[in-house]
Write a structure and sequence with these properties.
Keywords: Endoplasmic reticulum, Membrane, Signal, Transmembrane, Transmembrane helix. Helix content is about 45%, strand content about 10%. By secondary structure, the chain is α+β, with helices and mostly antiparallel strands.
Length: about 170
């Protein structure tokens, strides 16, 4: 019905070519079959001719993506200073341990101190992995697994130290 579908043709009267296109996603190569070369359609005489209807199916200009310019980075010396500032608390801790004299001989030997220190080191390794590779949800899942032996070994180690202190007193 051309009276109700005139908008599909932009009210442009004239000769049209009728082609049947056959193809879908599963078909490697589709084909076209020209049904008629000269189909005359006429619409209202008062329709305004559209000059852009020929450009409707022409090739559009190529869109070229432009990446954002890289931000300027600070010099390597600035990065080195900030890296040193982050390592400074560890250096202060080691210096203070040397000045007050850390008593490593008071540390009990056994499975619980070894397990506590290994699982504590695993937490620090997990922090590094979170910083470099993991997202928050993966880190929380691994932290839940590592925190169980950390809690158990830590509780056992503190109980051993408290029992040893009571025995001395």
């Amino acid at each position: 019905d051309l009276t109700t579908n005139a908008n599909d043709f932009r009210h442009q009267s004239g000769a049209y070519e009728l082609v049947l296109l056959v193809g879908d996603a599963a078909l490697q190569t589709g084909f076209s079959w020209k049904l008629t070369d000269n189909l005359q359609l006429s619409f209202h005489e008062d329709s305004v001719p559209d000059t852009n209807h020929l450009n409707l199916y022409s090739a559009k200009p190529e869109i070229v993506h432009q990446f954002r310019e890289d931000e300027k980075r600070p010099p390597a010396s600035v990065a080195l200073v900030f890296s040193a500032l982050t390592a400074l608390p560890l250096l202060i801790l080691l210096i203070l341990w040397l000045t007050i004299g850390v008593n490593f001989s008071g540390l009990p030997l056994g499975l619980s101190p070894l397990g506590f220190h290994i699982s504590h080191g695993a937490v620090f390794a997990l922090m590094y992995l979170y910083w470099k590779y993991l997202d928050m949800f993966q880190t929380m899942r691994y932290l839940a697994l590592v925190s169980i032996p950390l809690f158990l070994f830590g509780h056992r180690l503190l109980a051993t130290l408290a029992a040893r202190r009571e025995k001395k007193a």
